[in-house]
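Design request, tokens follow.
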């Protein structure tokens, strides 16, 4: 009985290999469609990133410390969400320099964002 068990092993192994090899491959049309979808998605993502960079470089879009959302403040270079919360808690501000004088941000971090913030 043990001999029969070992003789059937190669047959089972071959059936498994043939089954794996005969799985249907995607057609060239399906590959083109998937590639087109992935390209369109990547293009959309690139446009969103480019728009974000453009807004970040645009000095006209300075963040107002008295009205900015937590997300806008946290989007400033080097600012954490906790620091953004501290900025919001310290409102209103009369000048941007109050972030340092009130010990909300260290001078080094303030220097990184001073040209991107405003108080209206």
């Amino acid at each position: 009985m043990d001999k029969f068990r070992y003789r059937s092993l190669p047959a089972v192994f071959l059936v498994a290999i043939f089954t794996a090899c005969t799985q249907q491959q995607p057609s060239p049309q399906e590959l083109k469609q998937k590639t087109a979808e992935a390209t369109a998605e990547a293009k959309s993502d690139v446009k969103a990133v480019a728009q974000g960079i453009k807004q970040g470089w645009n000095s006209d879009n300075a963040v107002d410390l008295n009205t900015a959302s937590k997300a806008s403040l946290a989007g400033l270079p080097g600012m954490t969400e906790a620091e953004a919360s501290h900025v919001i808690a310290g409102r209103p501000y009369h000048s941007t320099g109050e972030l340092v004088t009130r010990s909300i941000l260290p001078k080094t971090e303030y220097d990184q964002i001073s040209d991107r913030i405003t108080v209206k």
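Comment from the thread starter after seeing the answer: thanks! Residues 28-57 form the longest helix (30 residues).
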